[in-house]
Every structure is written in structure tokens, then in C-alpha cells.
């Protein structure tokens, strides 16, 4: 039986800044997507399209990130927010 356990993907762009988290619902599909199969819709992998910040580490309280913070942290490179948030 495939592993369907949820997983947390953590992105920390700055060693002194907050961590950003996305919750992945389907680990098997996420691993296929991460390996390069971009035909998999992110809606199958992520149940809720929300990014959370953890100012005190991923074991502390989580805050849903505002659109402005998403734009500031995730945009600016060649990747778009949906790719950066789960890679």
C-alpha cells in the first residue's frame, strides 16, 4: 500500500529569518512531482493552498502568510511561487 501520510515541506531562505511551511497531503504524488513529473496537478498534492510561517522554528506557532509576504519571499527569481513552495 502506498504511503499516504502527510508531510511538511520547509523552506528557509534566510538562516536568521522565519521558516515557511507547506503541508503536502499525498507524499507519493509529491515525490513523483519532485522527481520531475510536472504533469501532476499541485491540487492533488496540496490540500489547501496556504503557506505558513514559523518565526520561532517549525515547532513553534504557525501563521498564515499574507499575499505581500508571499510576493516578497517567493517571487524575484525565475521560479514561481507554486514551484518554490514545494521544491
Automatic annotation (TrEMBL):
Protein name according to UniProt: Ribosome maturation protein SDO1/SBDS N-terminal domain-containing protein
